[in-house]
Design a protein that fits this description.
single chain, 121 residues, alpha+beta, Double Stranded RNA Binding Domain, two-stranded antiparallel ribbon, 4 helices, 13% strand, transcription regulation, repeat, nucleus, metal-binding, GH10225
């Protein structure tokens, strides 16, 4: 089955093959050395779960794959959550605030009332 795939990994001992050049290119990144001193932030697409190393690449992906260039990013340090809709960012931002909604049964607190309701069910 792999013999029909045109794009093969050239790394010694790997031998993986792909139908598309882009898939091989993405795979080749798995063979790269990782610098332990370099931060490893990744940017995930909320629509299709693809992950990108750079926010610029994610923006280009949104534009070409999902028809949207507007991305709203959480400004809380080390969060890196991104959303296509501003209302989803606003709802997410509440998760960084005070947990005002507490469960009477177990005492667990939630930033949003709908999260407490979901917890109770």
């Amino acid at each position: 089955m792999d013999e029909n795939k045109s794009f093969r990994c050239s790394e010694d001992g790997c031998g993986k093959a792909f139908w598309f050049k882009a898939a091989l290119k993405r795979h080749m990144n798995t063979h790269k050395e990782v610098d332990p001193d370099e931060p490893t932030i990744s940017w995930g697409c909320s629509e299709c779960c693809k992950v990108f190393a750079k926010v610029e690449t994610l923006r280009r992906h949104y534009k070409t794959s999902h028809g949207s260039v507007q991305i709203y990013t959480c400004e809380v340090p080390d969060c890196n959550q991104m959303f296509q809709r501003k209302d989803n960012l606003t709802r997410h931002a509440a998760s960084h605030g005070d947990n005002k909604h507490s469960c009477e049964t177990c005492g667990k607190s939630f930033a949003r009332k709908d999260a407490l309701t979901r917890h109770k069910t």
